[in-house]
Amino acid sequence: MPHNEGNPVQSGSVEEMRPLMVDGVFGGVDPAAGRLAFYIDINVIAVSDTGAMEANSVNRFFIPEIRMSPETFCSIADMMKTQADQYRQSMREYYANPERPTIEKTSSENGRSS
After folding, report:
1. b vs e for 66-87, b when ≥16 Cβ sit within 10 Å of the residue's Cβ?
2. Is 26 exposed, middle or buried (0-12, 13-18, 19+ CB in 10 A)?
3. Closest to 61 measured CA to CA, from 41, 35, 31
4. Which of 20, 40, 77, 89 matches a 20 to 30 Å C-alpha distance to 26?
5. Is pTM beyond 0.85 here?
6. Model confidence over 61-81: pLDDT tens digits?
7. How far apart are CA 79 and CA 108, in angstroms?
């Protein structure tokens, strides 16, 4: 890790880690620890006798559980709640604005040729 003069916290990244999109999380907190278990759902697609694609089932893959102190868990939960509240407020303001920008469909997107 690089040395940061005057800063007692060193930062860096783990090269093997990559961002993951998740579909949900289980978790909780008690006096011993906070725990989060994120998961990814993958639809299992099959082709029916008629040739139509159908989602027959879902495979759920769990990412290794993340454990932390109860204090860290609560701090993260507070930060996420603040971010979620700000996001919801901005969406309410966006959809309440009658002059918000819209995307017009082109004639080809409407099924007509030009």
Report:
1. eeeeeeebeeeeeeeeeeeeee
2. exposed
3. 41
4. 89
5. no
6. 999 899 999 999 999 999 999
7. 44
